[in-house]
Design goal:
The complex is a heterodimer of chains A (167) and B (275). Chain A is built from six helices and no strands. Chain A has 167 residues and is mainly alpha-helical. In chain A, helix 5 runs antiparallel to helix 6. The longest helix of chain A has 29 residues, at 138-166. Chain B has helices at residues 2-32, 45-58, 63-90, 93-100, 263-274, and strands spanning 104-114, 120-125, 138-140, 145-152, 157-164, 169-173, 180-184, 192-199, 209-212, 224-232, 238-245, 254-260. In chain B, strand 7 (180-184) and strand 8 form a beta hairpin. The N and C termini of chain B lie far apart (55 Å). By secondary structure, chain B is α+β, with helices and mostly antiparallel strands. Chain B has a six-stranded antiparallel beta barrel. Classes of the chains: A mainly alpha (167), B alpha+beta (275). The A-B interface holds A 19-20, 26, 29-32, 49-50, 53-54, 57, 60-61, 64-72, 74-75, 78-79, 82, 130-133, 137, 140 and B 13, 16-17, 20-21, 23-32, 37, 40-42, 44, 46-47, 50-51, 54, 113, 115-122, 124, 158, 165, 187-190, 250.
């Protein structure tokens, strides 16, 4: 029960943070971090894979509601929620029986870095491709992915560092 | 039959994934269509209330600048009024014709959510059907044009910004000539929009003012838009020019929604002639 409550609060916190603060940063006119995907990185691994997929859909669609983007956030968020297990297998070499004991904090920083960077770049690339909705400006899509992705990653690692210290 | 059930059992996770992705894609495609974007937009009750509360607190940051711009607008309006007074005193019939042939009404509104960093941008304003706003009305402020209303609830409306790749607005050169073109945005810089289809023989110079053309039923004639900042002459009949906006689209707050009282009359006439 306590776990569900804390996940729910984390969900609401990320949603409000994204919608009211991070969407208004517009660094250099157009660069925004999309930190809400941290929900997917930090969600505990479970045998039952449906809740995360559904929650990521809800998270994505709520952000879409606020930022008038149709279903783009939902689409890219579901995609990384789906591919997450594959990357857990590749980078951390975990099998389903290890899932209950898996914690991102106790893994080595190099593996965590690979895992987070891969998922962030996939998410941002899909998001910006759909946002511009044409193949003409691929260079802009790639640049946006790079800039926004760096911004998101800096915020994510700063955030995890701060919360680790306080405990 | 058993095979089908077995198939569903085996791939239920993947099928659920596909199902959710399909919903998201449908919403995305609908959102790009001006007439179909019903469901996911920030003009609904919940997000509208959130944004309205949030912008209440944010307003205090910019009171000084807002006062300044209001005062500037007042000066312009006062000057206009003086011009009209002179005319009235010469010819009293003008007063009557203005009184009974009013063409536009203005409703003041406030922007509670502003996007300008995506290729398809929308704004949310705090006026809706309750205040007489309807679809396809112009949104302007004292410096220039902002967008067109599209989705409505009782208290909020979503506005398609001019910074949206779907936006097409009739615009012309200010001055004695009546050369006009279509104003579009290429999705890159939020200070610059593009004017397409302007005839090659039009006497264009850098720094010329572009204003709305009044050939649509949405925007009133002669609302300022921006100045010509770059002319791309190509080997075609039409040239394509860059226009720097007067408005800073990243810093908008108080706007007017313009209702054209003759809109239905004009549209019924145009539809009639098409048949």
């Amino acid at each position: 029960m306590n776990k569900i409550l804390s996940q729910g609060l984390f969900f609401l916190f990320l949603l409000c943070l994204q919608v009211f603060i991070l969407n208004n940063i517009n660094f250099l006119g157009y660069i925004n971090p999309y930190l809400y995907i941290a929900f997917i990185f930090l969600y505990p691994l479970e045998e039952n894979k449906f809740p995360l997929l559904f929650l990521s859909f809800i998270l994505g669609i709520s952000i879409d509601f606020f930022s008038d983007s149709g279903g783009i956030h939902a689409f890219s968020t579901i995609l990384i929620a789906y591919t997450r297990l594959f990357f857990v297998r590749v980078y951390f070499r975990k099998i389903p029986s290890d899932y209950p004991f898996f914690k991102l904090k106790s893994e080595s920083i190099g593996k965590v870095f690979n895992y987070v960077v891969t998922l962030t770049l996939i998410h941002h690339f899909i998001y910006f491709s759909f946002a511009s909705f044409s193949f003409q400006n691929l260079s802009i899509v790639l640049l946006n992915t790079l800039y926004s992705g760096t911004f998101t990653l800096i915020l994510f690692f700063l955030g995890t560092y701060i919360f680790k210290k306080s405990k | 039959m058993q095979q089908i059930i077995y198939f569903f059992q085996k791939f239920k996770y993947f099928l659920f994934f596909l199902f959710l992705e399909f919903i998201a894609l449908t919403l995305t495609f609908n959102n790009l269509n001006f007439h179909k974007s019903k469901f996911v937009n920030s003009a609904n009750g919940i997000t509208g209330t959130f944004y309205a509360t949030f912008s209440n607190y944010k307003d205090y940051m910019s009171l000084r600048a807002k006062n300044q711009s209001l005062q500037e607008e007042n000066t312009i309006l006062k000057n206009d009024l003086e011009k009209n007074r002179l005319v009235f005193s010469k010819d009293t019939t003008v007063v009557d014709s203005i009184k009974y042939h009013q063409k536009y009404t203005y409703t003041q509104a406030k922007i509670i959510n502003n996007n300008y960093s995506n290729p398809y941008n929308f704004l949310t304003i705090n006026r809706g059907q309750n205040k007489g706003i309807s679809k396809e009305m112009a949104v302007i402020n004292s410096k220039g044009i902002i967008g067109i209303t599209e989705n409505l609830t009782n208290n909020y409306a979503r506005v398609q910004s001019i910074l949206n790749k779907n936006s097409n607005i009739n615009a012309r050169l200010k001055g004695n000539t009546a050369y006009f073109g279509t104003l579009k945005w290429n999705g890159i810089d939020y200070n610059t929009v593009q004017l397409h289809d302007i005839p090659r023989q039009a006497p264009l110079k850098l720094g010329d003012t572009i204003e709305t053309g009044g050939k649509s039923t949405i925007f009133p004639e002669g609302i300022p838009i921006g100045v010509v900042s770059k002319i791309n002459k190509r080997n075609t009949a039409n040239s394509n020019i860059d226009v720097t906006l007067f408005n800073d689209m990243s810093n908008l707050e108080h706007v007017y929604v313009v209702k054209n009282l003759h809109k239905q009359e004009i549209q019924s006439l145009e539809n009639f002639s098409n048949e």
